[in-house]
Amino acid sequence: MGDGTDNAKRALRADLRERRQMMSQAAREAAAAGIHSQLDALVDRFGARTISCFLSTTTEPGTRGFVTDAVARGIRVLLPVTRTDGLLDWAVATPDGEIAEGLFGLPEPVGELLGPIALDEADLLVIPAAAIDARGMRLGWGRGFYDKTLGSMNHCPPVYAVVYDSEVLDDVPKDTHDQAVSGVVTPTRTIDFARVAR
């Protein structure tokens, strides 16, 4: 990665992180309700029976209510578990599942790990992002877990990133390993992008 791209990503991430930290609790709760509604509609549109979704941190667009309700509806939800080799393991969300702090302080499920291959069973992937641009290019938080995961899949299902409305940008800095997404979900809308061949 060139220094210019690296510096541009770092600066943009810092700005986005600061904006997220400044959001009020009321704004976070309203955003989580909107995300829940948009994701429910997305799952219904694809007829998804197995999905992956991340457990949101306190500053991310809220996904936890959606995950809880999806499990209650009988949808199989795979939750990511970070590994030291840069790959993601997956565990099935359960109604009474224990959540602990994983690598990098992220909330992760405690339970049986299914390995990276479990993602092949998913009908829809819901992933975190710092920002998404108008072409569907995703800016992550710099650890590369999702870029590596998406780049290694032979038959990737639709991939939707979750961000706040203000984080859908005209352009984000990108490098060769960065992966585009099929669409983006915000608290107020879902945007589909032209399907990118993987």
TrEMBL record:
Provide the catalytic activity annotation: (6S)-5-formyl-5,6,7,8-tetrahydrofolate + ATP = (6R)-5,10-methenyltetrahydrofolate + ADP + phosphate
Q: What is its EC number?
A: 6.3.3.2
Q: Which GO terms describe its molecular function?
A: 5-formyltetrahydrofolate cyclo-ligase activity
Q: Which Gene3D superfamilies match?
A: NagB/RpiA/CoA transferase-like
Highest taxon of source: Bacteria
Broadest EC class assigned to this enzyme? ligase
Which co-factors does it depend on?
Mg(2+)
The answer on whether this UniProt entry bears the keyword ATP-binding reads yes
Q: Which UniProt keywords apply?
A: ATP-binding, Ligase, Magnesium, Metal-binding, Nucleotide-binding
Q: Ligase: present as a keyword of the record?
A: yes
PANTHER family xrefs: 5-FORMYLTETRAHYDROFOLATE CYCLO-LIGASE, ATPASE INHIBITOR/5-FORMYLTETRAHYDROFOLATE CYCLO-LIGASE
Family of the protein in this entry: Belongs to the 5-formyltetrahydrofolate cyclo-ligase family.
Q: What is the recorded name of this protein? A: 5-formyltetrahydrofolate cyclo-ligase
